[in-house]
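Bug #77: duplicate submission created two jobs. Keeping one. Sequence:
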Amino acid sequence: MTSESDRQLLLRIAREAIAAHLSGQPAPRSDEQALASRRGGAFVTLHHAGELRGCIGHIEAGDRLIEVVARCAIAACSADPRFSAVTEAELPRLDIELSLLGPLEPIDAATDVEVGRHGLVVERDWHRGLLLPQVAIEWKWDRDTFLAQTCHKAGLPRDAWKHGAKLWRFEAEVFGEHKGH
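Kept job's structure:
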């Protein structure tokens, strides 16, 4: 579990990286000792006025977490293909949510997935999709719908999880600013 001070630090790193990117400056480097050696995967989700505005992440746990958060924050505000780039005018009302990913665990059956606790990764051939644990809760999905939607996100048939696609589950520590503007 991440301490409250480290959570606030990671949120500040994300916000500062976005602000620097929007103003054309390089992202500030952070060598905060509290998190300097922690490695991990993370997703940065942006909301504006309660609506999704971007979400980009990095699954692998090999990079320094503070660098992953900064990179993903910049990508979420500028490179999510579903949205136009975030503008400087939006920044003050942007809510940042971080999902720090636990390790991926291969699973064999739908019963290995607990909605609300696990996120999912599905993969077959060159297709791969990931949905965070909170997505199933937000959309009120049951387990089968969550599995089907993860397959769909990967560009696979919705029942690919029943027909040889590889599945992994993971847990995530989710926290954010929740400015509520």
